[in-house]
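Team,

Forwarding the record for the chain on the shared tracking sheet. I've put the sequence and predicted structure together so nobody has to dig through attachments.
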Amino acid sequence: MLSIIYKYAKTALLLIATIVIVTGCSKEDGTSFDIGKSPGEGKGGSLARFTIACSHLFIVDDQNLNVFDIANPSKPVFVRTVNIGFGIETIFPFKDYLLIGSNTGMYIYDLVDCANPQYVTQFAHVMSCDPVVAEGDYAYVTLRSGGDCHVGMTSNQLDILNIADINNPHLVKTYFMDEPWGLGIDDSVLFICHGNYGLGVYNVVDPLDMKTVKRFSNVKAYDVIPHNDVLIVTGPDGLYQYDYSDLDSLKLLSVIQKD
């Protein structure tokens, strides 16, 4: 099992390096990720099972959080495995915390000691897949009906949690959606993938009064990474890059077609 996780760790590092280098081309400061240097953090999609923070790589499997020291990224060192529960699906770094999505809720772990993440609290919901992203005082969680991990889930929705008090996450608003999958947020602009129903762009300056900016029905989307006006979108047909500097009109930059 550990050998599989090691293989996954090296693959994760390569994927994160590729993503950040691709998006880094648009950064005004010219910085980019160098696989030969010590990384601080990574940027991944909401459906990701791995992330980078404070020079450590964190990988979730169905029950555990696996921690690697990547001070030397070419030689990741396994540190420990932290048992979380069951049905673990996604991981998202937020400030000094990890937000971990499962099919029963969201777990929060702190990174006071990056090598030894500690459980803080959790927010429970009905059984469903739940990718999560966060910005400011709020976390955004999509819940989708249908599929193996959605037993008992009959609605499709976006739940918004207030996490200003990280020890007391609580639901403040629910919006019903069309087939919500992954999501991403950048400066109060929320991107939600609606699978075969396209891609939605929303203004969440006031999360309790979310506004639809634009819906793109011609984009089949499962997950997104917004970064410096470049949106990476994964879908059934491949990986796409869009310029979203004009939120009313996505400009296609490149496509990597699925084999």
